[in-house]
Amino acid sequence: MSQPRPVLVVGSGAREHALATVLARTAPVIVAPGNPGMATSSTPFPITVSTDRPEDLDVDLVIIGPEVPLAEGLADSLRGLGRLVVGPGADGAQLEGSKAFMKELLDEAGIPTAKFGAFTSVAEALAFLATMSPPYVVKTDGLAAGKGVLVTDSFEEAKDDVIDKLMGEAFGKAGRRIVIEEGLIGTECSLLALCDGERVVALTPAQDFKRLGNGDAGPNTGGMGAYTPMPGIGQDLVAELVTTTIEPLVRAFQARGINYRGVLYAGLMLTEQGPKVLEFNARFGDPEAEVLLPLLQGDLVAWFTSIAEGTIAPALPAPGASVCVVLAAPGYPEAPRKSMPISGLASDGQLENAIAGVTVFHAGTARPDPDGPFLVSGGRVLTVSATAETLKDARALAYQAVAQISFEGMQYRTDIAEEAVRREELS
Question: Considering the entire predicted model, what is its pTM?
């Protein structure tokens, strides 16, 4: 029996490592550009790291992980070459490429969201800010790797952030148009769904932790950990969320002639007035992908193929629970330090003392000497992900694994899923 054709995953972070790992259960995987942790993974089918351009690789199915190549139209180029692609074209990727576009589309579709205004003028932005009540939310309009958001109760801090962004001092061109919106109070929830252009299939809701420190202290980051499922959010509420937030967005895309085939990531706030959308992203969340993907059972290659073909198959089963903890470099997110050796990892990039149910996904690692240690090469370095039957057990496994890994100045939160475990035990 011939080996199945390889699948291409575009990207180099922990999200792409998770995608490659689950896809390699049923087919060979090429990751471009990938990272050293992927290249050494032990999986049923091989994972190959490639420096070739995605357009030059001989594959049928492509899954695009990061937001930047989506915004730049990589999916359009690949579809033009006859490839099957999971990922929106540049028109659909505007959903994440411009927060102002996203908010306007939500208004058009009648999707509940926070009151907002979009600005390029400092004077107009500050006048609008003065009409708002804390907490104040100031966002870059363009892509900022998940870090272009300020949430603060201080008017002066919000005012300074508006000026810094619009004057080009923070986030460069991405920040020279901003969105100011009302702060919403409630429970945050990440709901990811796969869309084939017409229909959607939702994954299990997850919660991520954006702030650097325990108790949601410190600056916003790209994400310091996540867990799934969320206690108290059952299938009835998920169906309601799909009906009120995701499906209206797909209809709005169709009205604009946009054939959206890929991931729709809804960042939601479950308020006392009902669910409201904080943001929409055009790809798998990171670190949500590292808890959602490992739980999926079945042939993920066939499932992703059905999405790319416009004939989406039913949801795959995802029993159990998953918790992940991000290990970040010292100085992250403002100025991460690099090049420190990482201890506790074996030659394949996984734990030296393996723990069943635990996978280490690499994000910011390098390995200049193939016989030497992995080194810190980015802000978010590793994501330690654990699966188990319950959140309590998954959390325990994740932190047991974290205790095996160390590098100089390593930062991580110790409260990922802590409150959720308490709620799980009370239910």
Answer: 0.92
